[in-house]
Design brief:
Elements lengths: L14 H20 L14 H17 L1
């Protein structure tokens, strides 16, 4: 969840600021519901230097063919 990255406290005071803050959170949530998921996204977990080297070699090989 994106809010897990907030590491500092902040103060929202006053009716107008509270309303704006609540609206921003609601808009962000609604946007996340309609955002399309990219099924072409691939994640590769690399555990050590040899895996990184192999991955980059394969990637460069694919680019040179294009």
């Amino acid at each position: 969840m994106p809010t897990e990255s907030i590491t500092k406290s902040f103060i929202v005071s006053g009716k107008e600021q509270i309303e704006k803050f609540a609206n921003a959170i609601e808009e962000s949530y609604q946007e996340s519901l309609t955002r399309k998921k990219d099924s072409s996204l691939r994640i590769t977990h690399l555990r050590d230097a040899s895996e990184v080297k192999k991955f980059l070699e394969q990637r460069n090989f694919k680019k040179s063919k294009e």
